[in-house]
């Protein structure tokens, strides 16, 4: 038997006893009703403290002005409050679960209860005070509550009816009272599971990982940074470990639709990297390392990713081209969210560019761009995934403020919004005006339309149109260029019947403006000798010969000059595939052409001058951020030399056509004007000029002028 004294039972030292203190019925829960309500109270003490009793003391006073105040820390006494205040039990700090006793009660609801009677029975060894035999009264009167919880088993309800009827309960016991567990769960021990306590592993806050918390605050639930085995580890609050809850059936508990969910009740599922993003990142890396062109790198990279779907291949191409065309703006955006931009590795930056492009220019959801971005960085640099997670989340927030100003009020903001270098935007505005320059930049960011040229040497236009129609795409003929058609649905280019047309040389892909220049270069009169300067891969060669067949019923003898031997070999093979046998490739420096060819020996000369290519940036995304103002002036000087040398090859009465695919006056009209101011240039008169304007759904921006040698 233990000691008794008036005012309540005090347990053994260190166990906490009752002593008027809160009973502990579970893992740190206060005794009494839910939310800190007291189930009873202490009778008023009107005697004196026994002599020699050092376990605490009574602070006397008038009835109702004070209560029993425990003494030593392990005395377990009831702290009723300061003397004279007479505060009810539970009016102090919030309890363990965060509930307070100052909430509203119904009228007549007492915070106290019936007083405890003096304890005369045996004491239990369990912590939390006295626990007598089942069915016996505890501290006098029968308790008014038993099972903690509401009718539906939810946490935080009022006391239900008493659970035990005096008989010993041998059924399954609940040892985890969290609200995401149910009574009908079953626990199956795994072969490798040892039910031993392990050191505590911190567990992430539910507020950061729960889908409900995510929907509440309008942001997706981030994936845990560190995974841990929740079956064997206690969290830092001392609660029991989570066990593997395998429920009968396919539905997992804790999800309304029966599927897996994050937060409580389910493990986070690993994020799978999209093959399209992986391919796009690899394309970007190769383009950066080799200073290559996206159109040349993309096919080989896509072929390496075996099993990639056509949709993922198209997505990879779109991402790769978009990242390349907006490169400088993406880097500026990434650097805004880095403390030390110079420390980031190149391959990590390649991966971040993919996510940045999705956030700024594709309008992708932040959670998709962030999750995929982290996995993309992990695939190229695993140790940088933590940095990527932090940076990408900052980027997703910063993207909402892009372009950081009003484009209508600031040219710098306008250039940023259209992903153009500032100097480029200024030059366009000075030459075109603000409105036309803005339209040009916007059109340069649009997807380029697909035009095809029908080869009259091998195909009939009506038959080609029928093949495309059967494949699922209508063809819109050009109003000004014969044999030119706009393909309404470019997806048909992958159809076998359409691919066969390209393989047998019936059609080729070429912009409407390029086809117009080829038609302009082919003169009205019969041609015995044609000179092409800057042949490249031979597209203009094929187009000029197609126009010759339409006009003269035959191909014309042609010399095609380029300064790279491999291009001459490629041109010869391609011309043969299109049924052209009258072309002779020549490798030479066209600025010294008179050393290779006799002067005044050609009826028509076409100078397809190498230029900045500013009019074709939506097809060649590398141009925008590689081009410099100095290069434009250098190109203009080369173009003048080519035009002046080509003019020597023209017979009197023959034609000279000068063409570029740029919009800068320094490479177009200024080159022609400079040539015509020379003594030899005075012999040429301008017959026709083409200057197409770039539009979102139309042709590229090209420039061409045809001159005739009059003497």
From TrEMBL:
CDD domains for the chain: AdoMet_MTases
Please indicate if the UniProt record lists Magnesium as a keyword: no
- Active site located where? 661 (nucleophile)
Comp. bias intervals (Gly residues): 8-31, 54-89
Q: Where is this region: Disordered?
A: 1-277
Q: Where is the composition biased (Basic and acidic residues)?
A: 32-52, 98-154, 162-196, 226-259
Name the SUPFAM superfamilies for this protein: NusB-like, S-adenosyl-L-methionine-dependent methyltransferases
**Lineage: superkingdom:** Bacteria
Question: Which protein is depicted?
Answer: SAM-dependent MTase RsmB/NOP-type domain-containing protein
Domain SAM-dependent MTase RsmB/NOP-type as annotated: residue spans: 440-711
Q: What is the organism field in this record?
A: Slackia faecicanis
Which GO MF term does the entry hold, naming one? RNA binding
| Binding residues annotated for S-adenosyl-L-methionine, in chain numbering | 562, 589, 608
Q: Where is the signal peptide?
A: none
Family per UniProt? Belongs to the class I-like SAM-binding methyltransferase superfamily. RsmB/NOP family.
Assigned keywords, A-Z: Methyltransferase, RNA-binding, S-adenosyl-L-methionine, Transferase
